[in-house]
Amino acid sequence: MNTTSAVTTSLTEYGPLAQLVDMGGPVMIVLIAIALIGVVTFLYLMLFGAFYAPRYSKPLRRLVAQWQRAPSETRAKDTQTRAGLFGRTNPLMHLLVNTMSACQTNPNIAAVRETAVRDAQSALEPFEAPLKIIEVIAALAPLLGLLGTVMGMMEAFSAMAATEGRANASQLSGGIYEALTTTAAGLVVAIPFAALAAWIEFRLRRIHKTINSTLVSVFNIMPVAEPVITTDNAEHQAPTPSPATRDYTLSNNPRFAHATG
Fold first, then answer.
1. In a 3-state reduction of DSSP, which class is residue 194?
2. Fewest CB atoms within 10 A around its CB: which of 8, 97, 119, 215?
3. How confident is the model at residue 259 (pLDDT cuts 50, 70, 90)?
4. Is residue 107 part of a domain?
């Protein structure tokens, strides 16, 4: 029991964290805290993204191919029913199934597009907050290192002023050492988190592009409803354009040219 207490006390007083705090001063505590927050945020983002990130899987590729062949005969709900637990956690699965089902039943295609855009944006929102936290850490770490540098130099010049300019190197070394340590620590924290933020943003852009291209593939081909012509207005009924000549592209509407906004 006494040995365990002695080891714990030794780690607390002379462990790596205590040494860093002794070298860098109070600013080092803040740098260590934000580094731990960044690591936890990154791990959460990776675990959450492994299960809930939109993925264009093979069942979805087959579903889109079937939709492009015969949109009126596509049974999107069946694909979702056959999907396993991992497939059902895919937001893109829900987005495609809901969009295809709405296109088959709702004649207001503009409202279906609005809903698809809103759902696509909602699928990416859970990843924006962790990315922002990592970006803030990457931006704050060098500033905190600079703050530690200023505080260390102030301590060094304060020691020089106390001795009326007769301070020796040993008296000045403490403040200068603290200044250089916090600068290095700030850069050590900022560089990897800046790289992680750039990588995460690149991944989100690819997911955004995947969702956009998938929705465009769905909206380019729509189920054709047969016109109801009565004997009273048959002579005045305008001819219905054939599927070959009908324009289903989103490029003509600038609001939906980018399907996810």
1. helix
2. 8
3. very low
4. yes
At 16, list the tokens.
């790596």
Residue 11 in any domain: the answer is no
In the DSSP assignment, the letter for residue 246 is: -
Torsion from C-alpha of 116, 117, 122, 128, nearest 10 degrees: 150
Q: Which amino acid is at 251?
A: S
Tokens linked to 61:
């590729």
How many domains does one find in the chain? Answer: 1
> Can you give 7-49 as a three-state secondary structure string?
HHHHHHHHCHHHHHHHHHCHHHHHHHHHHHHHHHHHHHHHHHH
pLDDT digits (tens, 9 = 90+) for 153-208: 777 777 677 766 565 666 666 667 777 888 888 999 999 999 999 999 999 999 99
Whether this model's pTM surpasses 0.85: no
Q: 39 is in which domain, residue-wise?
A: 26-143+189-219
Find out whether 177 and 20 touch, Cβ atoms under 8 Å.
no
CA distance 250 to 58: 25
Question: Within a domain: residue 246?
Answer: no
d(CA 253, CA 110): 11
Model pLDDT for residues 128-161, shown as the tens digit of each residue: 999 999 999 999 999 998 888 888 777 777 767 7
Assigned token pair, 89: 């956690």
Q: How many CB atoms lie within 10 A of CB 134?
A: 24
In a domain, 136, yes or no: yes
Token digits for 72? 């009126």
* Residue given tokens 């010049």 in the structure block: 157
Q: How far apart are the first and last CA of the chain?
A: 63
